């Protein structure tokens, strides 16, 4: 059995890629539920169309 180091390149790559994907998802839901009250959104449209018209990535 080789020694399983807790900090190797595969762990660092998977950990930071997981943080990157998680930050994208948090940014998606944050813009979906908290940034709907802006000047560009219409009152008749729902949250998903507001997100599609006002995407900020």
TrEMBL record:
One Pfam family matching this protein: ATP-synt_8
Keywords: CF(0), Hydrogen ion transport, Ion transport, Membrane, Mitochondrion, Transmembrane, Transmembrane helix, Transport
GO cellular component: mitochondrial membrane; proton-transporting ATP synthase complex
Domain of life: Eukaryota
Membrane-topology annotation of the record: Single-pass membrane protein
Gene Ontology terms for molecular function: proton transmembrane transporter activity
Compartment list: Mitochondrion membrane
Biological process according to GO: proton motive force-driven ATP synthesis
InterPro entries named in the record: ATP8_metazoa
Family: Belongs to the ATPase protein 8 family.
Subunit structure: F-type ATPases have 2 components, CF(1) - the catalytic core - and CF(0) - the membrane proton channel.
Protein name from the UniProt record: ATP synthase complex subunit 8
């Amino acid at each position: 059995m080789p020694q399983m180091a807790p900090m190797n390149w595969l762990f660092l790559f998977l950990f930071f890629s997981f943080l990157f994907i998680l930050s994208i998802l948090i940014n998606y839901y944050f813009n979906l539920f908290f940034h709907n009250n802006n000047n560009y959104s219409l009152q008749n449209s729902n949250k998903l169309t507001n997100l599609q018209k006002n995407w900020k990535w």
